[in-house]
Design goal:
Blueprint lengths: L5 H17 L7 E5 L26 E5 L11 H5 L4 E4 L2 H8 L8 E2 L10
Parallel strand pairs: 1-2, 2-3, 3-4
Length: 119
Amino acid sequence: MQGWPDHALDAVEKTAGRLHELTEDADAIVCVCHSEPGAWSLRQSKYEAGTPCPAASRCDVTVGRTMFETDRLPEGWEARLNQMDDVWVPTEFHRGVFERAWKRGRAQKSYDSCHLRAY
């Protein structure tokens, strides 16, 4: 990670800290599903979205990394969110929207490591 901007290194450190809160097992397999909850392959995906995530038989911890541009979530998402061990969202606004539906804990604002000034 040599040469990475400080904000990206900080993002990696914060994400690693959050994963450590979820499991102290250094060998744990963490599956991060980066899509909206309808695409997650929980009991059954609502539609085909490529490679199934999470790969239920191989994940010790499942994380939903998601967002949705609205102030409320579609019907059925609450049940899908509540099957994940953690939910990561990109903004404080999204945190509020998703926390109203996710009953297992507090949605986490993710720390993206994208170099925002470059893009």
